[in-house]
Amino acid sequence: MLHKFKKIDYNIVFILVILMVISILSIYSTTFGRPRWESYPQRAGIFYIIGFIVFFGMSMINYKVIIKNYLYIYGGGLLLLVIVNFFGVTYYGAQGWLSIFGLSLQPAELFKLCLIVFLSALLSRKKNRPLLFGRDVIPIALCVLPPLLLVLLQNDLGNALSYVVILVGLLWIGNVKFSHALIGFIIAVAAFIAGTQAYVHYHDQITKFLQDIGRAHWADRFDPWLVPDQTSRDVLWQTYNAKLAIGSGGISGKGYLEGTTIQSNRVPLAYADSIFVQIGEEFGFVGASVLLLLYFILIHRLVLIALECKDRAGPYLIVGIISMLLYQIFVNIGPFIGLMPLTGITLPFISFGGTSLVLNMLSMGVVMSIKVHTEENEDILGSSEQLSITELIMKLFKRKPSQQEQS
């Protein structure tokens, strides 16, 4: 056990500790003088303690165990998504939380790691052979469709899109053909341009349609980005004040607890989805740059571990986790600097949120497990058969004969 602790990358541990300090200080600033949320900094500290326990615990477990049980992990995560659609609690317009003994659990967050494990296990069995569009890419994409639809039914667009990003990241490292990737990129860009233009030109009709299907708040998130001139002051409130706060922070910020916009509570959910605004206003460009630099160093360390890994599944897991983190960072910060609409995604390791933090710490634990156990070269991914993803999935449902039948 002791020799495993010696293999841990303590550079990553050090970065996580710094992010913990930033998180607790930022949450304290955004809840300062507000009795309703005064316990949040202490709760964030408790979540981090739990997170570090999960991190070190997962580091000691051979990651090949979770790869071996990828089907059960995927099935269990999918079951939670089904359950939350029937018995979930609604917060901020999304029915995405389960209340268990007074604690809130968000299955859509947890499923990110379940999906990474599942896709990594499937792609690992291809042994770096080129992915065929019909026999590999389409079937594996169809495996992402059920959780995607379930999360969209919960009214959680941000987490649903994260599944697509994870899929794309893993397909890229999974040796998808360049021609297929290029065609997919062109289609995605064309769809994006066509979609934004259609939204602008047919805004009233699309808004009415979203209202009819109970997704009116989606329009409230897209309007400030695409049609700010047609958007009400109430809808513009969050993004307008966020940009104002970040811009007023200047180079070095206004000082801790001195952010006028944050301290006057003019930015909704400043302790959660909008916490980057507090960093930008009170610590300025320098503070925001330091945070982004920490993320860069963290991801750089993850890439190094992936390059050193001797097992097929390890790099896939790490790339999936990197894709998840990059998506969350970009989608959280982007709306506050005018790059994209609000989606309600937490800032990794910084925003207040137990499920999100524990998931990210568990993900770091998986990465550390890969580093600790990378010299153990046991192949648990099955035989050397050259099967397509379609054949692999079909094989999962074939019953294996018992020993009596074989005899």
TrEMBL record:
Keywords: Cell shape, Membrane, Transmembrane, Transmembrane helix
Residue intervals passing through the bilayer: 12-33, 45-63, 70-94, 100-123, 132-151, 157-174, 181-200, 283-304, 316-337, 349-370
GO BP field: cell division; regulation of cell shape
A GO CC term attached to the entry: plasma membrane
Any one GO molecular function term: lipid-linked peptidoglycan transporter activity
Membrane association type: Multi-pass membrane protein
InterPro entries linked: FtsW/RodA (IPR001182)
Compartmental location: Membrane
Top-level division of the source organism's lineage: Bacteria
Subcellular location, principal: membrane
Name of the molecule in the record: Rod shape determining protein RodA
Species of the source: Paenibacillus amylolyticus
